[in-house]
Write a structure and sequence with these properties.
By secondary structure, the chain is of the alpha/beta class. Helix content is about 60%, strand content about 10%.
Length: about 675
């Protein structure tokens, strides 16, 4: 078989693309060139304007479009919604700034440099004003998704792109003689309806789907379907598909915790296939030869690069000064907002098709895209490195007195394969993100009964799979002991566990206790932190967290630790936490959350007695997560109210999602 170029065989095409994705990071890392730039340059080299090994066929059109949608979706789904809401005003302000300055510079700069008509000048200016988060994977790689500068830049992208697309639509309609204020108002109305209807429908549908289907593959396919439904609907009302993908990410954000198997799959597939495909496709559009054919193309390209870069830099510098940011934050804002791809390419092609751009301008715009992508990537990489170093030094300084291994060492005891995965997920969501300690999955048996043995081993496999899905090291242990309590206590001592997670007992007869004899024995046998969990719905779909705290809870040994666990869980689930606590205790809880810098929405409802909780409990729905902080007999916070608490929970919260916390006591022996 004779091989001809460009390649036409699907297997050969895909193989070459995979080799590029595989080898680019290795080759360009040695040259000190970021991977993103390497992929774009590789696209230039193998594309129709380079060695012509690949044609920009339908596969690159499809995968490229999927890649840019995936990029925008990832940018939204990885944002901490608390930080986004906190910085939304700054993001909109910077979005207006990074749109207006390039528009003004572009209109007057193009008029002076090219002598073009006003409609052409406005079109070119809209190309300067829009930008693509082409360097966002760098931010994600350095773990800076929630840095203020990054969140503001991401938020500004939507503002700038939306305004640029509206400007482009106005220019095209004016060129065709059909522009009117009515069409603009109609589009704005459609946008408002789109946000309301799609937001409401997707929230309800996602909550229903995630509760009915726990299969990770089905959930991943559903997420992709939501992204494309949202993108397609946005296109149907006259918006750009990337806006729909970003909106889908914001809707799905709270349903996909960062530390979850689903999030791992989403990031892996996007960064391994779709986003690299998009970057290679961008490079294949660029014809570097045109700069040598005519000096006019070089002049046009130089003018476009200087004006586009200078105006974006000025916007980032001015915005950073207004927000009180340092040099590296301003560089990050500039890096993220200076890249150009999707919207700029679309504006270039549309402008050329309508005769608003001549061939020199189109070629100059394509070269501008290449330069902007390179500058954006290099700047973001440099700024991210410096910010990562600064954050690491701050973290080391703030944790100088932290004892190595102080992070949670969790033991998850399982026996039922139906609840094992949920128990492990609950435990993992309570971990600090910096925690590198392994988690222990334990099945204790004291019999050789085949049925219970098989159930226990299946439960152990489910728990291990849940931990491995998020790259957490897990020690799976099957232990034979005289009884379950002895097995859990002995293994907890051997593994030096700080937390024990166990499922809530299901009553087998009318005289059985709420906890069951096994858990009651465990509470007497161990003073370690014990979490007793029961969730009827996936924990990532709960609406709120309600935390009931007894009086004088702040005097217990494990007070700060359980508050941190609750804070970690709320951070991962991105839901509001309502603490039902006595005034003095609430003040201590607030101090812990502030000292540990938890970015969560939380409020306090004051208790003066057990009757207040009974009144508040009427407001707790079956889609909320009720967390009750208990106390062992003889402890400072133990009272007669806690004596009756189990029976009250059994009578009134039998269908509610529940976690009962028994803090560490007397050193946790």
């Amino acid at each position: 078989m004779i091989v001809s170029f460009p390649l036409t065989q699907p297997v050969a095409i895909f193989l070459l693309v995979l080799l590029i994705i595989l080898l680019c990071p290795i080759i360009f890392r040695r040259l000190g060139i970021p991977q993103i730039v390497g992929l774009i340059l590789a696209g230039v080299a193998v594309g129709p304007y380079g060695l012509n090994l690949l044609a920009r066929d339908a596969s690159f059109e499809i995968f490229g479009q999927v890649g840019i949608l995936y990029l925008m979706f990832l940018a939204a789904v990885e944002i901490d919604m608390f930080h986004l809401k906190k910085n939304l005003g700054k993001g909109i302000t910077f979005g207006l700034l990074t749109f207006i300055l390039p528009i003004l510079a572009g209109v007057f700069g193009s008029r002076l440099a090219f002598g073009a008509g006003w409609d052409t000048c406005v079109l070119i200016a809209s190309m300067y004003a829009s930008h693509t988060l082409i360097s966002y994977p760098i931010i994600s790689r350095f773990g800076l998704q929630n840095a203020k500068a990054a969140i503001i830049a991401v938020c500004s992208t939507i503002v700038a792109v939306l305004l640029a697309l509206l400007t482009l639509a106005g220019v095209i309609e004016a060129a065709e003689g059909g522009f009117s204020m009515f069409s603009l108002l109609r589009l704005l109305l459609m946008m408002a309806l789109y946000a309301f209807i799609m937001g409401s429908c997707l929230r309800v549908a996602t909550k229903y789907f995630f509760r009915k289907f726990n299969d990770q593959v089905s959930q991943y396919i559903y997420v992709l379907a939501v992204v494309f439904i949202s993108s397609l609907t946005a296109q149907l009302i006259g918006l750009e598909a990337i806006l729909g993908a970003f909106f889908a990410g914001l809707i799905l954000n709270r349903f996909i915790p960062i530390r979850s198997g689903l999030m791992g799959r989403i990031s892996f597939v996007g960064n391994a296939i779709f986003i690299p495909y998009f970057l290679i496709g961008v490079g294949m559009l660029i014809n570097v030869h045109v700069i040598f054919k005519s000096w006019s193309v070089g002049w046009v390209a130089l003018n476009m690069v200087v004006v586009a870069m200078a105006s974006k830099w000025l916007a980032a510098w001015l915005g950073g000064r207004i927000f009180g940011f340092g040099k590296n934050d301003r560089r990050m804002m500039f890096g993220l907002t200076s890249g150009k791809a999707a919207a700029t390419i679309a504006a270039t092609m549309i402008g050329f098709q309508h005769g608003l751009l001549n061939e020199d301008m189109m070629n100059g715009a394509v070269l501008m895209i290449l330069v902007c992508c390179v500058v954006s990537t290099l700047t973001t990489e440099a700024a991210s490195k410096r910010l990562r170093i600064e954050r690491t030094e701050e973290a080391l300084h703030s944790e100088e007195e932290r004892v190595p291994g102080e992070y949670a060492r969790q033991l998850v005891a399982v026996a039922n394969p139906i609840t094992a995965e949920g128990l492990m997920k609950m435990a993992l969501l309570m971990r600090n993100r910096k925690n590198q300690n392994p988690v222990t999955a334990l099945f204790v048996r004291n019999t050789d009964d085949v049925r219970s043995l098989e159930m226990g081993r299946n439960a152990l496999r489910s728990a291990v799979s849940a931990a491995q899905a998020v790259d957490i090291e897990v020690d799976d242990i099957e232990r034979y002991d005289i009884n379950v309590v002895a097995g859990v206590v002995n293994e907890a001592k051997q593994a030096k566990a700080s937390d024990i997670m166990i499922g809530l007992h299901r009553k087998s007869n009318l005289v059985d206790t709420f906890y069951g004899s096994m858990i009651e024995q465990l509470l007497k046998a161990s003073n370690k932190m014990i979490f007793i969990s029961r969730c009827f719905i996936p924990v990532e779909t709960v609406n709120r967290m309600i935390v009931l705290v007894p009086d004088k809870a702040e005097y217990e040994t494990g007070f700060q630790t359980w508050v941190e666990r609750v804070g970690n869980l709320a951070t991962q689930l991105a839901v509001k936490v309502i603490f039902l606590a006595y005034r003095a205790t609430a003040s201590f809880i607030h101090n812990v959350l502030e000292d540990e810098h938890f970015s969560i929405r939380h409020e306090y409802r004051e208790l003066s007695g057990w009757d207040d909780f009974i009144l508040f409990s009427a407001d707790i729905g079956e889609e909320d997560l009720l967390m009750v902080v208990g106390a062992r007999k003889g402890s400072i916070s133990y009272s007669a109210d806690l004596e009756t608490m189990p029976s009250y929970l059994g009578k009134n919260f039998s269908r509610h999602n529940l976690v009962v916390i028994y803090p560490e006591q007397f050193g946790g022996q």
